[in-house]
Amino acid sequence: MIDQRLRGAAAIAGVGHAGIGFATGFTEMEILVQAAHRAVTDAGLTMQDIDGIATASVAAGMWAMPVIEHLGIKPTFIDSTMLGGSSFVAHLMPAIQALESGQCNAVLVCYGSTQRTSTLSRAEIGKARKLLDPQPYETPYNPLNPLSAYALATARHMHEFGTTREQLAEVAVAARKWAQLNPEALARDPLTIEDVLSARMVSDPLTVRDCCLVNDGAGAYVLVRADRAKSLKHKPVYVLGNSTAVWNRQISSMENLTVTAASQSGKIAFEMAGVTPKDVDVLECYDAFTINTLLFLEDLGFCKKGEAGQFVSNGGIAPGGHLAVNTNGGGLSCVHPGMYGIFILIEAVRQLRGEAGDRQISNANLAVVHGNGGTLSSQSTAILGTEATL
Asked: What is the pLDDT of residue 142?
């Protein structure tokens, strides 16, 4: 049963990021702290006002402890649930429940990674992940994960629905066009369909241009109760719905490679918010690979299963298209430091505040944020809205 009493009960009051791109000379903790302070300041609060925290890291199982220590806070609510890239969207509901129960008054959600400039090589990080998180039906075959996993889902979607490589390339080109409107985006040079198709193949049928960036970055946001948000620095962005779903860890355990748990998380989040995909002004979804965007457009209900290729064709999700998708440039062209979920929330907040500059969507009042973790493993959907949507 959907508890609509939590609809609009909490709002995002502040956002911030740091170290985007190449955080040379800084650790992931240092850029996380920078982003955290910027988000708290953006909310018009001080770090002493923060009594709740949610954070996660690929590299550390007890990550919340040193984060708390570095921030100098004494929280009464702590969430360090790690679900991969969707974690920072999934942190919303526990934080809202903690706020509503009176357990805390202001929750800081934060993340930082120096995946690009870390002294650990990506090969070493990959080896550590396999040891810490073995996948018994896949690891023995030494796949190039996550690439091989997403290539598998891509190949199945192409086989089952006739999706073409050109349609996949449309996703990358649309993301680049949005990035060209965003001065903070890392990849802003021109990109064409042919550029994507002729790029180096990394895991058939995905070329390097079908894949997300690998860089550094930290992000943070502050969540407070709705009544308090009205008295703070910025126009509140209310959380109207949120749900998280996990059906599998390994992609080889998926019942259907073309249907993700987003079909569950999205349905519940939309029901909680009391809106439909037709009401949405902007979609910020986790695009680690071009296939992600197609799958989530379908599973969240923006088009029917198998029709996403046609949906994105001819600039359908690019600037001027029929749906604004990944307006910051996404993980494909803006930023992707290991886990991307917090950055889609930051971009959605900026859109709903009207602070997105040249990429601003006119009269944006309703945004969908969708996070993905692992290899199509964890899915978390959030519906955010302005006061006009309450």
From this structure: 82
Angle subtended at Cα 162 by Cα 312 and Cα 287, rounded to the nearest 5 degrees: 40
Asked if 334 and 325 count as a contact pair (C-beta separation under 8 A), the reply is no
Please provide the average confidence, as pLDDT, over all residues in the chain: 94
Cα separation, 286 vs 352, whole angstroms: 18
Within 8 A by CB and 6+ apart from 362, the residues are none
β partners of residue 383: 241, 368
- Phi, psi torsion values for 131, nearest 5 degrees: -70, -40
The mean per-residue pLDDT over the stretch 99-125 comes to: 84
Q: Which residue has the higher pLDDT, 1 or 310?
A: 310
Q: Number of C-alpha atoms within 13 angstroms, CB side, residue 360?
A: 11
Domain ranges in the chain? 4-118+213-389
- Distance, in Å, from the CA atom of 329 to the CA atom of 23, rounded to the nearest integer, reads 20
Q: Is the dihedral of CA 195, 198, 203, 204 positive or negative?
A: positive
Sign of CA dihedral 126, 127, 128, 133: positive
Model pLDDT for residues 33-45, shown as the tens digit of each residue: 999 999 999 999 9
- Alpha-helical (H) ranges within the chain are 28-42, 64-71, 87-90, 92-101, 122-132, 147-161, 165-179, 193-198, 226-229, 262-273, 290-299, 308-312, 330-333, 341-353
Q: Which residues of 272-301 are buried (b: 16+ CB within 10 A; e: fewer)?
A: bbebeeeebbbbbbbbbbbbbbbbbbbbbb
| CATH number given to 4-118+213-389 | 3.40.47.10
**24 vs 296, more confident:** 296
Please report the pLDDT score of residue 124 as a whole number. Answer: 53
CA distance 340 to 330: 9
Q: How confident is the model at residue 333 (pLDDT cuts 50, 70, 90)?
A: very high
Question: Which residues pair with residue 242 across a beta bridge?
Answer: 382
